[in-house]
Amino acid sequence: MMDFALTDEQRDLRDVARAFVTKELLPLEDGFLRGGADRLPREREHELRAKARSFGFWGLSTPEPYGGMDLPALTQALIHIELARTCVPFRFGGQADNILYAATAAQQEEYLKPTIAGERLGCFALTEPDAGSDVAAIRTTARPDGTDWVVRGQKTFISNGDDADYAIVIAATDPGATAFLVDRAAGWTSSPIPTMGSWHRPATLFFDDVRVPGDKVLGEVGAGFDLAGRWVGKGRHVISAHCVGIAERCLSMAVGYAGLRRAFGRPIGDNQAIQWMIADSETELEAGRWLALRAAWDVDRGADARHSAAMAKLYCTGMVGRVVDRALQIHGGMGYTRELPLESWYRAVRAMRIYEGTDEIQRLILSRDLLRGHTRIGGHLA
Fold first, then answer.
1. Least confident of 11-20, 29-38, 241-250, 371-380
2. By Cβ atoms counted within 10 A, which residue in 118, 192, 208, 292 is the most buried?
């Protein structure tokens, strides 16, 4: 049975995260919004990460032997909810793509550990112009040439792709597909992709016969899709928690503004139209909160969380869009300006229904589970 009460440790970590956001990040919003920047200056980001580490936040999901906190997924979700309450694009340090834990000891020294320490930045390069959700359609190839491999192809919509100094590249090989660790210095190039929301800074990566040493194979030759499965979808419950945090802040702003803004001699919150928007947002937010926490709880208890994570992502990414839209509507013209974070969130949250699996892919996962004979007993797939 799921216990809905937080432990003392979870409550304490949530409160410390809330204090960090309130003290260090919220005061930066005004300048960030007015300045029109899409990211913090690198020096400021490093300074904030050092402060976060002094608060105790470093490597939320990183195993303890690598210097991380290795927190339960539910505790991480609570922290991500707090971190999402600000539009300042900041993430705690000490993290690396989980696929990197499949690296050899030598590869870990060269890639994993420096990434955790913040000394290197990688990106995960799977999506291509003609291969998004259908990963088996990738056309980027890697052919053996002596003890090396030669990688040729193109990847697109790669988060951090224009900033990364190495890429984890999934390329078609014989047999199957293989993951490679490819340094930018090896010769690949990138081009940023302008988007409606700028938080994720996607880029297109170009590999024009890039030579990769044989010791840069990550895992086994031909096992690239299995390795990719460790990364793809793992962030869905985190995205859901992030949606909850944004929606909480937007609803709080809407309620506060509805009580202060007056029209025709009374607060606009006296109007039923405003009340219904607030009530609908509260109801949907609460449903999303429990779906997000349920998915994280499934991860912690060792269950197959793909079903609950798909439900959480499908619902929460739609929910946050509706809550942001209502909050912006309640604020009227002020909500449309860069005086407030609402217009930034309005643009940014739309991408959440696309990356880490589109809405349609989440529906495919859910319906396929049920149509293949799984039934829900006591709230669990059986």
1. 371-380
2. 292
Q: Is 9 a catalytic residue?
A: no
Please tell me which residue in 110, 128, 248, 356 is annotated as part of the active site.
356
- Longest CA–CA separation in the chain, Å: 81
Domains, the chain, ordered by start:
8-95 (1.10.540.10), 120-222 (2.40.110.10), 233-381 (1.20.140.10)
- Note the pTM of the prediction, 2 decimals: 0.93
Res 377: pLDDT? 47
Residue 339 in tokens: 């005086």
The dihedral over CA atoms of 171, 313, 21, 298, expressed in degrees to the nearest 10, equals -90
Residue 111's alpha-carbon distances to 15, 50, 280, 373, in angstroms, are 33, 21, 46, 42
CA nearest to 258, candidates 266, 268, 249, 248: 268
Query: Which token pair is 15?
Result: 């409160």
**Residue 132 corresponds to which tokens in the numbers above?**
């998004």
**What pLDDT, on the 0 to 100 scale, is given for residue 205?**
98
Residue 6 gets which letter from DSSP?
Answer: P
pLDDT tens per residue, range 137-173:
999 999 999 999 999 999 999 999 999 999 999 999 9
